[in-house]
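Database export, one record per block. Field names are fixed; values are copied verbatim from the stored entry.
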Amino acid sequence: AGIRQSLDARQAGIRQSLDARQAGIRQSLDARQAGRYRQSLDARQAGIRQSLDARQAGIRQSLDARQAGIRQLLDARQAGIRQS
């Protein structure tokens, strides 16, 4: 009975240490996965930001071009009015 108790105690101790190790491994894996997931999200967000910036730049250019065109028209009209 004494031998059985000591074996049971040893097995229980071994189980606890294995459980602790597995828990530690799970935590480190979870931390790694969280890091990878965060990196991929950051990359996606950066990509979205770049595309938005590019779109805004394109809209700005088209607005600038329209304003320049309107200015030229107004200048031409004013010049025409001045000549007449």
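Remark 1: The chain has one helix and no strands.
Remark 2: Helices lie at 2-83.
End of record.
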